[in-house]
Amino acid sequence: MQARDTIERVDHSLELEEKLDHQIKGWKVQRICGVLLLILIVFTALGLFGSGILSEREVKKNNMVVQYERFLRYENETTIGWLVRGQDRINFLIPQQYLNKFKVEKIVPDNYETILADGYIGYTFKVSTGETAIRFYLTPKKAGTMVDVWKVNGQSFEIAHFIYP
Amino acid sequence: MELFLRGVAIYLFLLLVFRILGKRSLAETTTFDFVLLLIIGEATQQALLGNDFSVTNALVLITVLMGIDMVFSKLKGRYKKLDRLLEGTPLILVEHGKPLKGRMKEARVDTEDIMEAARLSHGLEQMKQIKYAVLERDGQISIIPSSSD
């Protein structure tokens, strides 16, 4: 309304279609979109598209901690990091449908045994006592929402991602 | 299919962003604007091509982009409302030597921009020598001098 009042009306002799009401509407939309753009920039900085406080997730259960990113981008590598204490054998069971959406680039450390079992792929690590860090380097191959449950030594951990195209 | 969707998404996104930025966003390109454009070009190229640097991929992508552009220009020719929505309409900024401040503020044009266009196109020295200054659809300012000059 304010813009409409401050815009001068012109009675001109030019052969042009000014469509002032259309212009005023356009400026209003531009202003709204400008604000939305700034909000988007702020949310991007906070991690809406990955790497930020909105995206970081940490789940703790007993002596196990998993850290991962909630928001991922198609074909942009991500890391799922595990910290396990006081276990001499760590067994991961990852749903096959989860791994269908990712390419496993690397698992560190790489001295693990693999088994295929009833819709899961199992990775077993033999460790000495103390704290063990295991990292899965994965590249998303499909866009969309995905929620799956990893089992680590019998404990269930829900891992949820949104993968941007 | 994925390549087609990438092309359409990038085309529509750029169309939207440059429409939001307004007509004057690229009408006068400063050195920094030029650098910014190069960076946008580079980011867009990676999003469009992904990891496929084959000639076929590039040719398909160019065809898709040109095709979308052709469809839009046909639609714009056919539907006036769409044309106005995408390209905007011209706007009078000066009337008989009087700058229309409200319009200039909304269009993000200042007196200096108008005088620069007046000097470049007609060698005019003062605002009062301008009959009409019009911000055209492409972001350029056209000047119609007063007939007495």
Automatic annotation (TrEMBL), chain A:
Listed A to Z, the keywords are:
Membrane, Transmembrane, Transmembrane helix
Protein name in the entry: Uncharacterized protein
Answer yes or no on keyword Transmembrane. Answer: yes
Classification lineage = Bacteria, Pseudomonadati, Bacteroidota, Sphingobacteriia, Sphingobacteriales
List where the protein spans the membrane: 32-54
UniProtKB/TrEMBL annotation, chain B:
**Know the name of this protein?**
DUF421 domain-containing protein
Keywords from the named record: Cell membrane, Membrane, Transmembrane, Transmembrane helix
Q: Where in the cell is it found?
A: Cell membrane
Q: What is its main location?
A: membrane
Q: Which residues form a coiled coil?
A: none
Q: From what superkingdom does this record's organism come?
A: Bacteria
Q: Which InterPro entries match?
A: DUF421, UPF0702_alpha/beta_dom_sf, YetF_N
List residues of the YetF C-terminal domain. 79-147
Could you list the residue ranges that cross the membrane?
A: 53-72
Q: How does it sit in the membrane?
A: Multi-pass membrane protein
Q: List each copy of the YetF-like N-terminal transmembrane domain by range.
A: 12-71
Q: Which family does it belong to?
A: Belongs to the UPF0702 family.
Q: Which organism is it from?
A: Parapedobacter composti
A Pfam family per the record: DUF421
Which cellular components does GO assign to this protein? plasma membrane
